[in-house]
Amino acid sequence: MINSVDVTCVPAVTMALVKDVMACAPSGVLWLASLLLLSAWTHACPHPCKCAGTTVDCSELDLGTIPDDIPRNTTELFLCGNKLTSIPSGGFSGLANLTVLYLDRNQITNEGLPRNAFQGLRSLKELHLTSNSLTAVPLGQLKAVRRELVFLDLSENSILQIPTGAFSSLRRLRELKLRKTGLQQVLPESFSGMDR
Prior knowledge:
Layout: H1 12-24, H2 29-42, E1 50-52, E2 55-57, E3 76-78, E4 100-102, E5 126-128, H3 139-142, E6 151-153, E7 175-177
Parallel strand pairs: 2-3, 3-4, 4-5, 5-6, 6-7
Antiparallel strand pairs: 1-2
Organism: Branchiostoma lanceolatum (Common lancelet)
Domain LRRNT: 44-76
Main location: membrane
């Protein structure tokens, strides 16, 4: 019979549940404790970020890479004001529930965004890439998020032109921000294929 379980990461409410189960059904205690520990581990907040519910805030931490252990249930991820220059291929894979991604005020370049940088983000509705080092609209990379994306902010990047049909695959896009980009000319064909 198990008399104690190391559950230092489990909140007090969960500890009370474990104690109740241990008193009632000792044979299932190990299974329940393992399940609870796995659940706590799966939703752990990556160090040194801050988490609240399904929001993970890793802003202003001088990060040079994306944390590896972002919980899979994350819906909002803040990586603003760091030192990111690139996003690795599949860097957000496993975050299928992510709806909002803030990558503002980093140093991300077009070369640092491989075609599958946003692969697996099938629920992404908002993408914030303000104040990076982009010199062109990341066309190939945006195709991975084309199904749900409704908001895209590319402001304060050095984007001088927008190719014809650049946003045609983003059928649900409703808001596009291009403030302070240095755009010299915007042709109507740049937005061909868009519903609105």
